[in-house]
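protien #1 (seq + structre)
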Amino acid sequence: MLPPPPGQARIWFYRLWDPSESLNVANIGVNGVYVGSVEPGGAFYRDVNPGIYHIVPQNQYVDYNQNTDVVVVPGEQVFIAVLDLTSGANAVSGSQWYVHRDAWYAQLVLPQYALAQIVNPGSCAAPQRSLPAAAFSY
């Protein structure tokens, strides 16, 4: 893997392949600007100037801890796992039908763990998140 250009840092965005979750692409914003979309099992990166970045997956389902902030320095590479927790987020329910919306979460992941997941997504489990108990509709 090549390092970022001199004086810049690199932010990676990736998703594991999990056919039980959404197969839609996750649109990612950084500091209020759309930077790309990541599909299931996919990854992309953006080279950025050193600084503070607010990473926001675009959501219709709003929850806390969906966004993350990172501080990057020249030469650094950081990895953001884009997690889909749609199966636990029933955004709208009705008496005879249910509407499920994608629930994206951005999570900073240790580089060695993220690289293992990107290179061989079946080799290790997805990062675990601690989420609050939510009301379930049946």
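ok now protien #2
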Amino acid sequence: MTTLSKHPEETRLYAFDFSEQKEITAGQTLVSALALSATRLEGSGVLTLGAPTINGTRLDFTVAGGALGDKFELLCTVSTSGGATLAGAGRLKIERV
């Protein structure tokens, strides 16, 4: 699982990339963002997640907030043109960068 980082004062654009998933390599496309969430693993800050948007084979979204030392797990699910549901996950650390 990939771990990314951001400063608490930043609003950053992040993406889950589904281009290597077998459904996508077989020709299906992403059609809908079903869910996007952040679960705090450490710390006391709060993240603000922007509305997710489909951008080709990626699910793009912005992240703002958090407090120094926080760690979060980010999860998303998307649907494809063939009816599949795909999931993405990653970790985010809030630190001085």
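The beta strands are 3-6, 11-17, 30-42, 47-49, 53-55, 58-65, 71-80, 85-94.
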